[in-house]
Structure formats: structure tokens, C-alpha cells
Specification:
5 helices, flat, 112 residues, 0% strand
Length: 112
């Protein structure tokens, strides 16, 4: 989706990206996933509350803070590339609740 919208071209190749851009890009992708879930549910009415809980849990389990704490016992925020568990859950929720990609602008968000 980000490629189709031209976002990937705007942020450049991974080696050209400014610090923090990767996190914002990944959080936006999570938000877009939430938008997809919203639209899919509106059309098909197939998701259960437990499905959303599972998606939020999955997002939290792959947060940089969680993964680093599990692997080394502590987290190094300066090395994050995908965002914290809380950030990932927050942005997925933002997309799912709104159903609008305009609410997924992580690049201009004051707080992630």
C-alpha cells in the first residue's frame, strides 16, 4: 500500500532513511492493516472481538521493546526499527477504529 501511494519513494531506500523513519513507516503499515480490517469487517462481517484481540496481541508481541527484552534482557530504544509494543497496538487500533488511511499519518504525528 505504501508503495502504491508513493510513500516508499518519499522516504527513500533503507540506507537513505533518517533515524526514526523506519519506525514511522512500520507503524503506518500497522495502521493500514487496521484500516483493511475495518473495511473487511464492514463488507464481510466476519471478525469476532477475539480476532481483534489476537491482532493487537500479535502487534504487541513483535514490538522492538518486547523482542529486545526477551533476547537480551533490556531494550535499546535508539535501535528500534518497528516501534514499541504499545505503539504498534496503538496504530493498528487507530486504523481499525477509523477505517481511514488519513488517520495513519505517522510521519506528521507529534507522538507515536
Amino acid at each position: 500500500m505504501q508503495d502504491l501511494l508513493g510513500i516508499m519513494q518519499q522516504v527513500g531506500r533503507p540506507t537513505e532513511r533518517a533515524s526514526g523513519t523506519s519506525v514511522r513507516l512500520e507503524l503506518q503499515a500497522g495502521c493500514f492493516a487496521g484500516v483493511w480490517g475495518n473495511k473487511s469487517q464492514a463488507q464481510l462481517d466476519w471478525l469476532q472481538a477475539s480476532d481483534i484481540d489476537a491482532a493487537l496481541n500479535a502487534a504487541a508481541q513483535v514490538g522492538d521493546d518486547t523482542l529486545q527484552k526477551e533476547s537480551r534482557g533490556y531494550a535499546v530504544p535508539d535501535s528500534f526499527t518497528h516501534g514499541t509494543s504499545a505503539q504498534r497496538s496503538r496504530w493498528f487500533k487507530a486504523g481499525f477504529q477509523s477505517g481511514d488511511i488519513r488517520n495513519c499519518d505517522t510521519f506528521n504525528a507529534a507522538a507515536l
